[in-house]
Amino acid sequence: MVPERETSLPQRPNALRLGLCCQFVRQPIKFRVTTATAMLRLPRPAQLERLAELCRANAEALLAALQFCAGHGIGAFRINSQILPVKTHPEAGYEMNELPGGAEIIARLRECGQFAGSNNLRLSFHPGQFVVLNSPNPMTLASSLAELSAPWRAAGRAITAARWPEAQRLRPTLSTSPLGSEPSDY
After folding, report:
1. Rounded distance, CA 82 to CA 80, Å?
2. What pTM, to 2 d.p., does this model score?
């Protein structure tokens, strides 16, 4: 008889932690996305309604992803930058309080953070393709920093606050703090 899997990872500070990145192939867990072009074709109230639907679905998908990780001994999950689609776009972007049901979406994301914290899951964000921190163009750099801080201002604030209480204290130093990088040009 096979023992049941634990739903919480043990607290081992020096243990190898395996993680998943953003997407599932064999599981019915899907994160939904859109483009600014598609959103800008709609009147603003319809944009906000559609974006709320996508954000709500993505919060549910995130919880399902975290439950899968906890149930399979996976200790980290990298959240796709589009969990809040086009959040920082200069024309189609939005604040969570503008979305119909925005408070409920934030509450669900907080549940994700609480679940991650109670199951010892490490969460990280993956910046989008347009984040270019070495750009000589000041506007590109400013939008890149806005994109990096968006998770702190919206979803990440809810998620990380449950995992790391000092996150709110560190938030203002995001643009000057060391950033991790990974080789993705292979």
Report:
1. 5
2. 0.71
